[in-house]
Amino acid sequence: MFRKVLIANRGEIALRVICACKELGIRTVAVYSEADRHSLHVRFADEAICIGPPRSADSYLNVPAVISAAEIADVDAIHPGYGLLSENANFAEVCRASNIKFIGPPPEVTRLMGEKEKARQAMKKAKVPILPGSDGVIASEADALDWARTVGYPVILKASAGGGGRGMRVVRHAEELPGLFQAASSEAQNAFGNGDMYMEKFIERPRHIEFQVLADEHGNVMVLGERECSIQRRHQKLLEEAPSLMVTSRMREEISKTLKRCLSTIGYQNAGTVEFLMDEDGKMYFIEMNTRIQVEHPVTEFVTGIDLVKAQLRIAAGERLQDIITEPVVIRGHSIECRINAEHAEKFTPSAGKITVFNVPGGTGVRVDTAQYAEGVVPPYYDSLIAKLIVHGRDREEAMQRMQRALSMFVVEGIHTSIPLHRKILADPDFRAGKFDTKYMERFFEREKERKDAEAQSGK
Ligand code: MV4
Question: Do residues 397 and 391 make contact, with C-beta atoms less than 8 angstroms apart?
């Protein structure tokens, strides 16, 4: 096992990785920006090194600064967390060249999955279901029109270097295709330095369902069930749950079998997430793979009882999956996560500042992952996630009741948070009935607006 690990991240995930290291007897090194001097990841790590000014580009994303800190502290490995450098194949290569183990897949695999069209073809080859679409990147406008005619409108154009919703265009009619193709391609060229586009059949109201995988460095792969992630706004997830109401155990077994074969062929290593869209007929199609630990990993930890971050560390140290997970994986009960963001409820604009009151709920089946505390400061430089509230219950009903109870006891003052929004979602009959898809939040805000307009009318 590693002697010492550097955590190249901040906030709750840095603290989460520190927890896993402590339990494995690994020494920890935090890195921090000038804005994070008083953060808990700095306090709870065995050592801490300041790597630059507040902006991420000058600190957490500064590869030479992170590597220098790793060399000075003499660590064996770096855990990148999520976001930041976690899916940067060049960073993983620099780690390798510096004799530091990058806790994640090899750079070659990260690079393959980062090229969304290549990832799609790799999955197709391994018989993972994909949507009808182009084979390879689209060569020209004429090529795009040909593919769209074959696939049938509506289609969606996606940037091969994109992902997570960036660089996409929905095309409903042939007349608008040439313009949208050119616009999307030049936008992708500007944003990612790569204008390659591919095409898929467009699904109108998909659900977003993702499978958690673990793979060791000896060719063994395990699939740990799925997470339902459809409750999102502007590609930011707000609430996730495991398992998905829409996935039967037969479907789960089928997808797991296929993914195991596919990922061992590809040479996947460490933790990963395979994203699928589910159409209204309940059919699932691969869209992308994420090569990192994800924000919502705790819901999988609750229903499987497996510590995913400890598994990541043990895999990276060369251990075999059969020695890490010694019992058959069973999905037990139901788990829900609410992402508590520091933001204004309606406008979704960030709410930075000093937290005056911070009361965290606890009790049976409740977990809070956070690096915040009373008197703590939310800096304006980073993403707005300040805490994750995760619950586990015997079934979805109990999980929802527990979440409502925990939300009512989560008190944050001094800044605005998404807690009131989460309480409204948990009270919504459609959510409770499991009636939602990726357009759920749009409809939710329309209903809210109608309700407020009606209120204003009657008040006059
Ligand atoms: C789609 C789609 C409909 N049809 N692909 C957005 C994020 C990126 N990971 C893929 N995305 C989508 N791809 C086809 N063929 C709709 C979306 C989509 C979406 C997907 C998952 C979660 C939220 C979403 C919100 C809007 C659009």
Answer: no
- Strand 207-215, strand 353-354: pairing: unpaired
Mean pLDDT in consecutive groups of 10 residues from the start of the chain, 460 residues: 98 98 98 97 98 98 98 98 98 98 98 97 97 95 96 97 84 97 93 94 98 98 98 96 98 98 97 98 98 98 98 98 97 98 85 96 98 96 97 98 98 97 98 98 94 85
Q: How far is CA 37 from CA 41, 52, 100, 352, in A?
A: 9, 11, 25, 16
231 lines ligand 1 (CB under 6 A): no
Cβ contact 3:293 at 8 Å: no
| 3-class secondary-structure state, position 27 | strand
User: Which atom of ligand 1 is found nearest the CA of 230?
Assistant: 22
Type and span of the H or E element at 158: strand 155-163
Q: Is the pTM of this model over 0.90?
A: yes
Kindly list the catalytic residues.
Answer: 292
Our answer on whether the CB atom of 235 is closer than 6 Å to any ligand 1 atom is yes
Cα separation, 9 vs 86, in Å, equals 9
